[in-house]
Structures are given as structure tokens and as C-alpha cells.
């Protein structure tokens, strides 16, 4: 009898421990009300967030009555040049303000931040917004405040943000102001084109011309292989060619318009023009390693890669004989669409709903997103959200920046479409599209089946 | 003698005080969240806004959810494949390494190694071995067995990804369960085998009529533990099928991943708890059936 009892208890405890593991995902977050700090660390055992989470508390005490400390959520403080630069520059303009940066790490940044801002234990004043799905989450959680009143009171001219703010407006209100703006261009390796005697890509290429050029550059000879082009495994790198005509977005719920681009890329894969998606997934090849290896003629990537190229070539981490002679051109465009239409990703700042000092927080957000912040961003080799001529000159004048005119010209954007515009269910739509993108690219589904599955899944999210 | 307390009550108090530290921790960090998760399954909550009542809404939605159904199917297939295979493999290993073979210490260590090694490291090695175009496995298939390049198996996508996950798990866990079986084997009295030998039993008969029945309670433990661990599968799927961005397609997604995704990416804590309840019920029912079977067998 005793044995029986023991075994029942044993089984119950084992089941309970399972439920503890699976159920705690939902259950334990309930405790965030009381302990947001530990909870955030808990959720990210594996993420660098925990280890790198460091609070930079300046030693300065609040002796001055008017002095204010703003607590600002950021990621990767050590490896990202502009956080400290922005904070230092702002503290010069506003000496009574102390900026206290809290590094939440870049892996799962938005998840950690959302957990931090759940409940009322948070004391952040300003938070950085890394992506639109995360932004949508924070807006829906009422964790960040609408900036409309401030924007109209201070007369901020939103047209300077190249239309990006329209794509993140929630029911007519804006909850963040972008300060960094990356957009996609085509990087190419000039040496490979010279060797082959092929003309460089231009700022006015149609997709057909781009496809032909990629094929022309390809060499499938074993041992001296050249890939005409390279696509990273992100959905953005392939699927979002299709939204550049300005007629479609990823929120549509009907995705037949993506078919020609999937066909183009999968045909290129078949012909050895680009590396296979399944290979890239299996080996986890980073796009920077692919391009700097010197066997990729063209690669579409965001403008953040410029800063990587400049610094890694200078430090000698990339072999300049393989990829030192590089250039950029604008994204290819569909027939009848203006060249210079491209994808963009913005990074913005928001003021939290729980801050005690919203006015000071807003002043900081306004400054960083304004022209003075833009100059600081440009000096660190990053693209500010407001692209002034001054900022452009600073970037194109950086040492190592390609000297040809086409590369400078490539930085002018005519239409910028956010990779992910705002929608209420954008996070779920994003997950569904990501999943089926993987299915199509790995050959699990045909293009038609994959698109049909996307339609079905997203329709279920939009019209439940 | 303390007044008012019987000897029995005092003894109980001592026992409870020993249990208390563990139980308090369990209650705060496991029991309360579990109970809350049960409740959440019938509610809608995003972690910030007021909780609203959902009734059975979350469960009704499950029936229409393509990703949930895919995750459920994959988890079940994974369990059905992994549990018996791991059990058979670990029992076979244990029987072989229970013999007096030369270097059995080395082989025992070797087969236990995958369990100790870092999951990230061993999945990387597996990904190299099974790399769809450059891996040695596919190279052998191509050069020795003349499989055309475009028909080489894609081990980490499509229909094969679950098989890869199952094989990987069997390889990884068989060493651990082998140790448990070894302990069981060593508990079997040598006299039984001697008696059987005298009666003229062959090796197979000895296994069937002595080893297997004697290992009955060990097997029960192994199967229950394996089943519970299988339903919890998450890391293997992420590491083998996730690749760079970590997104799992419908052919490789599993329940625990979906629970995480719904809870902390989409912030649908109620819906996520409903999925967790389905997982709980599945494990509960399977384990109860196993206990029933065990009881029947014993009587």
C-alpha cells in the first residue's frame, strides 16, 4: 500500500513539474506585478540580456534641485557607438539632466522590455523601440504614451521623417519618434565585376536586369565558385521585394503578389546563382561572412552593413583583397516603379506612461530625433531618421566609404516602406509570414501552397 | 514531554518542518503559477490591461488554429517515435555493457557523453554531419549510393525534420537511461540465471523470463520519464530546425515553442495557458494510463 501511495505521489510531482515548466510561461508572468526585475532576467536565461544587463548609474547625486535623471532602455551598449555619444552630447546641452542607460541586451530586447513595462514596478522614463511588432505590443499594453500633444505643441515637422511616421501611427496617434533609419541597398563587390569584365550594377535597375546580371556574374565551376547574388535567411531579404511597388503591404491578407519574387529567387537557387536557403539555415552563415568571403557579387542588405564594412575593413577583420573594393546601388525596382523605392527599418524613442518627468523625457526624445541628434548619429556612421545634407556629407565622408558617385547616389531614397508597418495584430501576422516563408524557401511547400497557407493563416488573424 | 502534544503530533511536526523549506519554495514558484495558469486559460490577458473573461473561447479558438494543430501533431509524432526507440536502445546498450566486455568502462562513458555535452555544441556537430549539400552523410549517399544531388534528403526541413529530431534525441538520451537500466540489471540476482541455466534455458529465454520481468519497475520509470520529457521538447526543435531567426515552420513547430510564442511574443497569456492546459492534459492522461497498466501488471 505504501508503495502505491509513494508511486502516486511521485507521478503527481513529476506531472506537476512538467506543468510548472510549460505552464509557468504564462503563469509566472503574472508575478511581474511584484517583481519585474527578476522576471525579466528569468525569461532570458539563455539571452545575453542577463549577463550584459548593467546599470550605469552615474555617481553624480541629485544635489541640484532642478536636476533630473532619465532612465533609458537600450541594448548592446559596448558594441554600439551611438548610445554613449547621444547621452554625452545631450548632457552638454541640458546640464541638469543625467542620462542613466540600462542595457537590456539585443537578443529578445523587445520581449524583455515588454516584461519590464508590464505592471507598475518599472521606473524607465525613455525606452528605445527596436521594431514595430514590439512597438505594437507596448502601445496595446499602454506602456508608452502618445506624443501627439508634445508634437503639436512643439511644432515638430513630421514630414522630415520621409513618411515613416505615417506607417507607425496608431488610430491617429504617434507613440514614438524615430531617430535612426536604415534602408536596404544592394552591396556589390567591384573586383568580381572587373575580373569578369561586366559593367557594375546601376542605380536604375529593374528586377529583370538585376536577375540577368546576377546570372551573368555566376560561376559554378567547382573551386572557383562565384555567386551572382546572396540572400540572407530573413523574410525581408526575399519576400519584401514585392512590397516596393507601393500597392501592397504585408498586412494585406492576400499574398499572390509575392509569387514572382519567390520564383526569381528559387530559380536563382536552382541555377547556383545564390546559396541555398537550407544550406544557410544548416550552417547559420551570417550575411557579413558571406559577403566578406569574396565570392558573392551582389547582396541586398540594410544600410547598417555600411558601418560594419567600414570598421571591419579598417581593423583588418575582413580581408581587403577579398571585399575591400565594394560599392552600393539602389534597390532594383519593378517595371513602372520609380527607382529608389526601398525597405526601411526605424529605431525610435518613446516616453513611458509611468515616468514622473514626462516633459524632460520628451525634451530628450525630441533632441535625439531632431537635427542635433542626427549629426551625432551620422558621426558614428549611422543613418539618422532625419536625413539632412549635413548628415549625408558626414557619412559619405567617412574614411573607407566608396568614392564612386553611384554609391553616394544610392543613399537617396525616393519611397521608404517599412519592413513591418503598424497594425493591431502585426506580431501574429509577422510570425505566420515568417513561418511560411521558411516553408517556401526550404521546399517544404510549393510557392502556391505556401502563399495559400499565408492567406489562410493571416485571414484567420485579421478576421477571427 | 511538551504539554498538549501527543508523541505522534510531535513526530509529525518534525517531519513537516523538514518538508517546509522545499514545499514553501514549490508553493510560491510552482504551485501558485500553475493554479494561475489554469485560471488564465479561461481568461484574456496581455499582462497589462485588465483581465477579461473568455470562458471557453480560448479552447474553441484552438480548434481553428493551424499552428496549434501543427504543433500538437508534431509533438505527438515526436513522442511516439522517441519513447519506444530510446527505451529499446538504452536497454540494448545496458545489456551489452553489463557483460564483461573489454573496455566496457570506456564504452559506458562514451554512450553517456552525449547526455552531458552541451546541446548547442552537439547540435552544431549534427548540423555539420547532416548538412544538406556539404555534410558527409549526404556526400556518402551521393557518391556511394548514387543519389542524385537534387534528391538528397533535406534533414532539417520538410518531412524529415521530425525524424532528425527523433534520432537526435534517441542518441542524446540513451546513455542516461542506459545507466538507469544498468542499475536495474545489477539488482537482478545471479542465482536466477544460474537456475535457468541448469534448466537449460537459452539466452533469449533468460531475457524473456528473467531479465525483462525483473526490470519491470525500471522500465516503468524509464517510460514515464521519457514520455514527460518528450512532451516538453523545445530545445531540440529550436536548435535543429530553427536556424538563424529561430522561427519554426509548421513541419517542426512544437507545443512548448508555441506556448512561448503566444505568451511572450504575442502577449496572449490566456490563449497560451489554454495551449499549456492541453499539454498538461495530454501528459496527465498518458501517465495515468501508464500507471493503470503498471497496476494491472503487478496484480
Can you characterise this structure?
The complex is a heterodimer of chains A (464) and B (299). Chain A has 464 residues and is α/β, with parallel strands linked by helices. Chain A has 2 domains: 2-24 and 34-182 and 345-396, Periplasmic binding protein-like II (D-Maltodextrin-Binding Protein, domain 2, 3-Layer(aba) Sandwich), CATH 3.40.190; 183-341, D-Maltodextrin-Binding Protein, domain 2 (3-Layer(aba) Sandwich), CATH 3.40.190.10. Chain A contains 21 helices and 9 strands. Chain A has helices spanning 2-27, 36-43, 48-52, 82-93, 109-117, 132-140, 148-153, 190-196, 207-217, 236-239, 259-270, 277-283, 287-292, 304-315, 320-323, 358-369, 371-379, 389-396, 405-409, 426-441, 447-462, and strands at residues 68-74, 97-103, 126-129, 177-189, 227-230, 296-302, 326-329, 341-351, 415-418. In chain A, strands 1, 2, 3, 4, 5, 6, 7, 8 and 9 form a 9-stranded mixed β-sheet that branches. Chain A is globular and about 70 Å long. The termini of chain A are far apart. By secondary structure, chain B is mainly alpha-helical. In chain B, 74% of the residues lie in helices and 1% in strands. Chain B contains 13 helices and 2 strands; from the N terminus they run αββαααααααααααα. Chain B has helices spanning 7-40, 57-64, 66-98, 104-116, 119-129, 136-143, 160-186, 190-198, 203-214, 216-231, 235-242, 255-265, 269-298; strands at residues 43-44, 52-53. Chain B has a two-stranded antiparallel ribbon. In chain B, helix 3 (66-98) packs parallel to helix 7 (160-186), helix 3 packs antiparallel against helix 10 and helix 12 (255-265) packs antiparallel against helix 13 (269-298). The relative contact order of chain B is 0.12. The mean pLDDT of chain B is 91. Chains A and B meet through helix 1, helix 5, helix 6, helix 12 and helix 20 of A and helix 1, helix 10, helix 12 and helix 13 of B.
